[in-house]
Design a protein that fits this description.
By secondary structure, this protein is mostly helical. It has 14 helices and three strands.
């Protein structure tokens, strides 16, 4: 809740990353000969919808990459769960979503109506409008994600965990942090595996293997169309705050701080997007693939398997990224904190017309 209030675009980033991961699972499954796998299956798998029950061991969740590996290695068969059955597990209420969209739509209409009739719009209304924009974008990104699934799909296999690890060879030699199938996909980068060990925080659920996914995986959006869409939405979100550039603030210093915070938010968002897009391009191997297409004579990574090995060996959060992210995140947090505080402080001194309502009859043609 705090993150959604302080940085709703970060929540949108998580939603975008989850959608991208679901899309990557669709590509992987269809390339393996399973055309019925959909984004809903991908969302369902990556949120822990499939639980593996090996022989002689406790059960644990598996994601889409791990499930595909088990299928390709012959440990299990392709699940018969259809897209409709996946969606039937969701607790999403269509009426509730429709009502929410109608309420937010009515708020947008009221705000536009006030602007047309030259009535003041408060900083609280302006910030709410930015929240509404991000919320609608999140609804779109999570349109195919099941909500509040309580009963996972259990996959029973005859093989033991030892069988899987031994057959995997050297790649499964490292101790796992979350589940025994970390050698396939260890949920990196995540708060649990990349951040908490260095902060001496309590590292999530104490059970190993994890009984559920912690849902703290940082979004790896990549450098594709979704990254551009996310950047556009983020810039619109920041731009909405610039509408209050010349609002009537209680004091001149508050106006100056508002303007400085708007500029700081936007600049930090651009820096964060550039850094993450560049590094995500390495994480998913996009830059290497483009380099190999442009310079085939220097192509040294010939096979997809070797590309995957190089990709897995890459550092997900390098030192340079941390060095850039820490000060940028601090500045963004200070700017965002001021804006959240100011939207309430500014209510102490509002112009009289801020309490006037929109005269809707003026929009109706009449004599």
């Amino acid at each position: 809740m705090v993150q959604a209030i302080m940085a709703p675009e970060f929540v949108l980033g998580f939603a975008t990353g989850q959608k991208v991961e679901a899309g990557r699972s669709v590509q992987a499954f269809r390339a393996a000969g399973y055309p019925n796998w959909t984004k809903r299956h991908g969302f369902y798998a990556n949120m822990g919808g499939f639980v593996l029950q090996p022989r002689g061991w406790c059960s644990f969740p598996i994601n889409a990459k791990q499930l595909l590996y088990l299928i390709q290695q012959g440990y299990t068969t392709y699940p018969t769960l259809t897209e409709k059955e996946v969606w039937d597990k969701s607790k999403a209420d269509g009426f509730q979503k429709t009502l929410t969209c109608l309420q937010t739509g009515w708020f947008i209409v009221q705000t536009v109506g006030r602007a047309i009739q030259h009535l003041p719009v408060t900083t609280l209304e302006l910030t709410t409008l930015s929240f509404v924009f991000c919320t609608l974008a999140m609804y779109f990104q999570w349109a195919n994600k099941p909500l509040d699934v309580e009963s996972p799909t259990i996959i029973h296999i005859e093989a033991t965990v030892e069988d899987i690890l031994i057959n995997a060879g050297h790649r499964a030699s490292k101790p796992y942090q979350q589940t025994p199938l970390d050698f396939i996909d260890d949920q990196s980068p995540s708060w649990l595996t990349e951040v908490q060990p260095h902060l001496r925080f309590r590292r999530g659920p104490p059970e190993r293997p994890l009984p559920r996914f912690t849902n703290d995986r940082f979004p790896v959006i990549g450098a594709g169309p979704e990254a551009i869409i996310f950047f556009f939405v983020d810039m619109v979100y920041c731009a909405i705050h610039f509408i209050g550039w010349n609002f009537d603030f209680p004091t001149p210093i508050e106006m100056t701080l508002w303007r400085a915070s708007c500029l700081a938010m936007t600049i930090c968002a651009v820096i964060l997007w550039i850094c993450e897009t560049y590094q995500d391009g390495h994480r998913v191997g996009r830059w290497r693939r483009w380099h190999n297409k442009l310079f085939p004579e220097s192509h040294r990574v010939a096979t997809m398997s070797s590309m995957e090995k190089a990709e897995r060996a890459a550092v997900f959060i390098p030192v340079w990224e941390v060095a850039v992210m820490i000060p940028v995140t601090v500045i963004y947090t200070l700017a965002r904190t001021y804006i959240v505080v100011e939207i309430f402080l500014s209510q102490r001194s509002l112009p009289a017309d801020a309490f006037a309502t929109v005269q809707w009859t003026e929009f109706i043609p009449h004599l």
